[in-house]
Amino acid sequence: MVFLVRLSAILLLLAAGCASQGNSTSTREAKVELSPEQRVGQRAQARWDALLARDLTKAYGFITPGSRSTLPYELYAGRLDPSIWRKAVFKAAQCEKETCNVQVTLDYVVGSLPLTHVLNEQWLLVDGEWWFVYTPQTG
């Protein structure tokens, strides 16, 4: 009986050790920080994914907080025509301390003519997060 109790205790300790090692690995992976270019690239792609899905409310949420405070959603949404956009892919970002110039390749259609254009977007770091700098020309 004593042998079984000791064996059970050893097995429990081994299981706990394996479980903590698993958590240790995931903790180390979670601590890997993305570069500013990677972070803004993910946000830029997510914004364009929302626009392509015609989720203008979600896309509006990527605009700098200051711009959202002065630009009503209805005005923003009224200026966009997502029906012409076909595909958008984050291409590159060049970042400084609090600003990034982001390039996105956009496929769109005018009439029946398919076109591709590389857009230059400005993004701004505010309170630790990257935000799209809205201008009426950039949508």
Commentary on this structure:
- The protein has 139 residues and is α+β, with helices and mostly antiparallel strands.
- The protein contains five helices and four strands; from the N terminus they run αααααββββ.
- It has helices at 2-30, 36-52, 56-60, 65-70, 73-78, and strands spanning 85-95, 99-110, 113-126, 129-132.
- It has a four-stranded antiparallel β-sheet with strand order 1-2-3-4, covered by helices on one side.
- The relative contact order is 0.14.
- Residues 1-27 have low confidence and may be disordered.
Main sheet: which strands, in order across?
Answer: 1-2-3-4
User: What sort of overall outline do the alpha carbons produce when their principal axes are compared?
Assistant: globular
Number of DSSP strands? 4
Low-confidence stretches: 1-27
Strand content bin? 25-35%
Compute the separation of the termini in Å: 74 Å
Number of H- or I-type helical stretches? 5
Helix content: 40-55%
Mean pLDDT: 83
Q: Multimeric state of these chains?
A: single chain
Task: Jot down its keywords.
disordered N terminus, alpha+beta, 45% helix, four-stranded antiparallel beta sheet, single chain, 4 strands, 139 residues, globular, 5 helices
Secondary structure elements and their pairing?
Layout: H1 2-30, H2 36-52, H3 56-60, H4 65-70, H5 73-78, E1 85-95, E2 99-110, E3 113-126, E4 129-132
Antiparallel strand pairs: 1-2, 2-3, 3-4
